[in-house]
Hints:
The structure holds two protein chains of two kinds. Chain A has strands at about 5, 10-15, 20, 25, 30-40, 45-50, 55-60, 65-70, 75-80, 85-95, 100-105, 105-110. By secondary structure, chain A is mostly beta strands. In chain A, strands 2, 5, 6, 10, 11 and 12 form a six-stranded mixed β-sheet that branches. In chain A, strands 3-9-8-7 form a four-stranded antiparallel β-sheet, with no helix packed on it. Chain A has a two-stranded antiparallel sheet with strand order 1-4. In chain A, a hairpin with a 4-residue loop joins β8 and β9. Chain A is globular. The termini of chain A are far apart. The relative contact order of chain A is 0.33. Chain B is mainly β. Chain B is about 0% helix and about 50% strand. In chain B, β4 (about 30-40) and β5 form a beta hairpin. Classes of the chains: A mainly beta, B mainly beta. At the A-B interface, β5 and β6 of A face β4 and β5 of B.
Amino acid sequence: AQSVTQPDIHITVSEGASLELRCNYSYGATPYLFWYVQSPGQGLQLLLKYFSGDTLVQGIKGFEAEFKRSQSSFNLRKPSVHWSDAAEYFCAVDTGTASKLTFGTGTRLQVTL
Amino acid sequence: NAGVTQTPKFQVLKTGQSMTLQCAQDMNHEYMSWYRQDPGMGLRLIHYSVGAGITDQGEVPNGYNVSRSTTEDFPLRLLSAAPSQTSVYFCASRSLIGSGNTIYFGEGSWLTVV
Lengths: 113, 114
């Protein structure tokens, strides 16, 4: 069965600093990969997704993620964080079957001014 | 566009009470699902459906029932609520045409069982 690991439960960065959120997955083949963001009291919003092709994918709000097959990773990055980016971020893996969207446990991002 | 609509947004139940969380989508998606979100656990799949009349269990199905009589609706029933079912519940849908389609989430239902 596939699994997703987000090793950082909580990250604090200063506004304007760069950000990298880690995501590692376990699956025998190349899965479909997603990053979602959840603001407090809200639902989940898709930031970006990777299916195939270029391993560096661009998303909304200035986020990007890079798929590295050799490391089974799909880390999320942003060059300069804004205070409004404070939220919880979830990495998810989809193996292509209807029922198998598996989420990581999330990383809560705090942004200091 | 309504997308995925969940009701109610907030609910407090007493142990042993029953209730139904409603979910409707207007995107003609074949696939619908229910997740629960608990601190430090991420989202865990409760039940899912790939079409009207077809449902199946996810990772944490115990204590929950579902049915899918129409493409649009996928209600989640708690027959006898327990404090362990205090959680945030998300309904989601996606198209099954093609591969790796985006899954769309409702805004969540906050349930407290006392």
